[in-house]
Amino acid sequence: MKPASWPRYMVEKRTQAGVAYYWRPPGRDMAKNCPVHAEALGADYGGALVRAQLLNEHLDAWRNGLGEPKSIDVGARFGSVDWWIETYQRADAYTKLSARTREDYREALQRLTDLQTNLTDLRTDEKGRVGALPAASLSPAAVDKLYGLLRAGGAVRQANYPIDVARRAWKVVARKYPTQFLIPNPSSNPRERLPLNPFVGVERVRGDGTTGPASRVEAYRLAEALAALGHPALGLAALICYEWLQRPENVLAGKFSWTDYRPTHHPLAVRIDHHKTRKKIWQPLEDDDGKLYPEIEAFAARVPRLGVPMVLLEPERGPKSTITGKRTPRLYSLEHARHLVQKARAKAELPKHVTLAACRHGGMTELGNAGLTDAQIMSLSAHETPAAARVYVKRTELQRVTAARKRRQFVERGS
Question: Which residues does 84 contact at the CB level (< 8 Å), separation at least 6?
Answer without folding.
Answer: 135, 169, 170, 173, 180, 181
